[in-house]
Amino acid sequence: MKKILIADDKATSRELLRTVLERQGYAVTEAADGEEALQKALAESPDLILLDLQMPRRSGYEVLGELRKDPRHAELPIIAITASAMQGDREKALAAGFTGYMAKPVALVHLREEVNRLLQIKDFKTAGENG
Amino acid sequence: MTAGNPESQAGARQESSLESRYRKLLHAAPDAILEVNQEGQILILNEAVERMFGYSRDELLGLSVDQLVPAAMRGGHAQHRSAYADRPKSRPMGTGLELQGQRKDGSLFPVEISLSPNWIDGALHVIASVRDITERKAVEDRIRTLREQYTAELTLKNEQLEARNREVERANRLKNEFLASMSHELRTPLHTIIGFSELLGEQLEGPLGEKQQRFVGHILQDARHLLELINEILDISKIESGRLELKREPFEFSQCVEEVLGGIRHQAATKNITLENKNRFHDSLYADRLRVKEILYNLLSNAVKFTPEGGRVWVEAFSAGNFLHVSVCDTGIGIPEKEHPAIFEKFYQVGDARGGTREGTGLGLPITKHLVELHGGTINVESRPGQGSSFRLTFPLRPAS
């Protein structure tokens, strides 16, 4: 079962994302701030991370920066989720090294599609490496 | 006047003689003109010398010219005179220095002096022409003072202006920060309101009764409406602060029309409105794709909103010259002509005449107009009450260089 880490300081948002993703058949762990997100990402090696950009202790950008330093996480799909949605935010996030970007409110259809797509790409790449 | 003085001898002659005429010429000069011998004694002077220095002619004749020099300079003056004797030629005296004369009463005044050698029986005499430049100095001083004042005022004004600019920039930055944080704070709860409503509506957590489904639908619809309003308010403030930038790229216009029509189809179907695509432009357009979609979406959703059951809404587009012409038309309730200019103004809403529908911010059309104009295009409306509306747009096919 694929593991997804959801990092968001809003408990209601975590519950929403968890509900949607568990129904898709993924195993979900949660982190309520940036530091916890980084620790869980390092300890539990999730297959994908949904990372809120504005969180206490460490911002999403800081967590991303720490993870991307490690070659094992260089290709890990990490999706930025943010309610800021100002002009240029998407470009900034993608330029920083996020794999995807979603503005809150996130349409559930879009969330399912994006997560499934990135995990399939990951499978395809892994299969390629093993084959 | 003493006998033996050349001037008094001249005075004895006939007034009409040439010498007399020369003397009159000399006396008529506004500058003080005097001749001194090698020892510095004044031999000849005109009337201006008397007026300028406050001595009488008798006091001046035979007086050392050093007496007319300020007391403080007097000591060096004899040396200056002998230096002149070494190189006698016509020249201004003390070039670059501020020269002063001293009146009999001891007062000083600024002067300009020209010197010329005059050889008399093998001895060097000097003719000095002294000009009182008090007035000129005063004018120059006044001009300098005015210029300094003006410069000081200008500097002050500039500083005030810069301070004001900094204030405006700061206020603008605070406003932008406020908008960014407001947007964030409003979207955060909307994210879960819309998300959980969608989840409930999907009935994966258990079936809903017909009424419950409808209620959840209402929550979802109004939450999405609220989101649109937030986006519109953000857009208008970005437009007003000039921060809305276009991301131009070439894209297939016809695909863009299809996508927007797809997004509006459900809305049209619930009112049994026929949606038609009469686009005849199948080339690529160089514009901001998302903003063009927003423009079309705004006009089409307005058209559907203001068209009664069973009506028609259509999009036409064709290229002519360097422009793409787009029309969004409907068979709706129309807009009275006197309201045509106002509908593009902020917060204007066509009143009860449009079926009592008063939802929205009144920002949709102003934003649409701004977006069209940012692209270098135009927008106008043709409409009559009861006969529908046509919004006609132009887009440059290529941006102006």
Question: Can you put this structure into words, describing what you see?
Answer:
The complex is a heterodimer of chains A (131) and B (401). Chain A has 131 residues and is an alpha/beta fold. Chain A has a single domain (3-130), classed as Response regulator (Rossmann fold, 3-Layer(aba) Sandwich), CATH 3.40.50.2300. Helices cover 50% and strands 18% of the residues of chain A. Chain A contains 5 helices and 5 strands. Chain A has a 5-stranded parallel β-sheet, sandwiched between helices. In chain A, β3, α3 and β4 (78-82) form a beta-alpha-beta unit. The two termini of chain A are 21 Å apart. By secondary structure, chain B is α+β, with helices and mostly antiparallel strands. Chain B has 3 domains: 6-132, Beta-Lactamase (2-Layer Sandwich); 139-240; 249-396, Histidine kinase-like ATPase, C-terminal domain (Heat Shock Protein 90). Chain B has helices at 6-12, 18-28, 47-53, 57-60, 71-86, 134-202, 210-240, 253-270, 289-305, 364-374; strands at 32-36, 42-45, 91-92, 99-102, 108-120, 123-132, 249-252, 274-279, 284-287, 312-320, 323-330, 378-383, 389-396. In chain B, β5 and β6 (123-132) form a beta hairpin. The two termini of chain B are 91 Å apart. The model of chain B is unreliable at 352-358 (pLDDT under 50). Classes of the chains: A alpha/beta (131), B alpha+beta (401). At the A-B interface, α1 of A face α6 and α7 of B.
Point out poorly predicted stretches of chain A: none
Under CATH, the topology of the largest domain in chain B can be stated as Heat Shock Protein 90
Shape category of chain A = globular
Q: What Rg of chain B is obtained from the alpha carbons, in whole angstroms?
A: 47 Å
Q: Spans of chain B with pLDDT under 50 lasting ≥5 residues?
A: 352-358
What is the strand content of chain A? 15-25%
In the sheet with the most strands of chain A, the strands line up as 2-1-3-4-5
Helix-strand pattern of chain B, N to C? HHEEHHHEEEEHHEHEEHEEHEE
**Helix and strand composition category of chain A:** alpha/beta
Q: Which range does the strand content of chain B fall in?
A: 15-25%
Number of helices of chain A: 5
The separation of the N and C termini of chain A measures 21 Å
